[in-house]
Amino acid sequence: MSAAVSLSASGAKVERLALSRFTTLGVGGQAEVWTVENHAQLSEAMSAPYRILGGGSNLVIADEGLKERVIRLGGEFAATDLQAAPESTAEHFISGWVGGGVPLPGLLRKLRTLGLSGLEGTVGVPAQVGGAVWMNAGTRFGEMFDGLFALEIATPEGVSQLSPDELPWGYRDSAIPRNHIVTRVRLQLTRSTPEAVSAKMQNADTSRKGQPKMKTPGCAFKNPGGVGAGKLIDDAGLKGTQIGGAMISPDHANFIVNLGGAAASDVHALLELIRQRVGVPLELEYELWP
Ligand SMILES: Cc1cc2nc3c(=O)[nH]c(=O)nc-3n(C[C@H](O)[C@H](O)[C@H](O)COP(=O)(O)OP(=O)(O)OC[C@H]3O[C@@H](n4cnc5c(N)ncnc54)[C@H](O)[C@@H]3O)c2cc1C
């Protein structure tokens, strides 16, 4: 039986849903999910305690679910305008607005087809544009802020547009406060060719060899001071360790994967085991909700 859907005063879709369907780990209990399509709906959604959900690729959400409402970006926040804006030049391409709810992999495919260069380093990051901007996702080949011209950010107080130069962004951090919602961005790219963009993407993608292809929220821990967290976990003999439906990947020890039917509590138990068995303090890479 499908969940009951209601409409808020401004027309946002409101449903009580299991969040497991929105996370790459496939784990997470229920919450009231608000799908917003425009600023009026977003403003109403932000009038009570909320969390903003992107591609769910960096989250472990509790089995008990969440008390706060969860906002998902749809409608105009999931639209992509890749027409050249008047600020563009013969060399540089400035885009129209690209929604924070747009899946990053699909956007990168479009940029490759158009021969637009600048975001190739983010290939393989299974995020939405807003989530990738919020944490300045990327790899050693490049990051989100390499290709940003402007951002639009919504808070309960209102909507503002700013230039990336106005933010003290850094490594995997945009400095945008939590729950300030990246609703749209404009891209700043270099005109190139589909072949050259494709080659750069392939180069960045080869660095992912060995990463597990199963349901996962990505790397569990940050590398502590030059040593790979995966190596430390492997050295502690934990590769392949299973608790409930969750397992430390036999392919790459810094990934916890869902074998099917994993609970958030299984993942928490594995994280705790790793912390106990690895001799050095480890900082979590993904977020635990709540
Ligand atoms: C297989 C795999 C590989 C990965 N590889 C990489 C990698 O190479 N490099 C890398 O950096 N990361 C990587 N990640 C981690 C993850 O993809 C990034 O952290 C990504 O930025 C998360 O974006 P998301 O849209 O999925 O956000 P979510 O996981 O949904 O949310 C993460 C955080 O972003 C916030 N957020 C989401 N959307 C918005 C928005 N519109 N405005 C403001 N805040 C928002 C959420 O509130 C939350 O705090 C990987 C993950 C997986 C599963």
UniProtKB/TrEMBL annotation:
It catalyses: UDP-N-acetyl-alpha-D-muramate + NADP(+) = UDP-N-acetyl-3-O-(1-carboxyvinyl)-alpha-D-glucosamine + NADPH + H(+). It is found in: Cytoplasm. Keywords: Cell cycle, Cell division, Cell shape, Cell wall biogenesis/degradation, Cytoplasm, FAD, Flavoprotein, NADP, Oxidoreductase, Peptidoglycan synthesis. GO terms for molecular function: FAD binding; UDP-N-acetylmuramate dehydrogenase activity. GO terms for biological process: cell division; cell wall organization; peptidoglycan biosynthetic process; regulation of cell shape. Its cofactor is FAD. The active site is at 172, 219 (proton donor). Residues 26-192 form the FAD-binding PCMH-type domain. Residues 193-218 are annotated as: Disordered. The keyword Flavoprotein applies. Belongs to the MurB family. Cell wall formation. This is UDP-N-acetylenolpyruvoylglucosamine reductase. The lineage of its organism: Bacteria, Thermotogati, Deinococcota, Deinococci, Deinococcales.
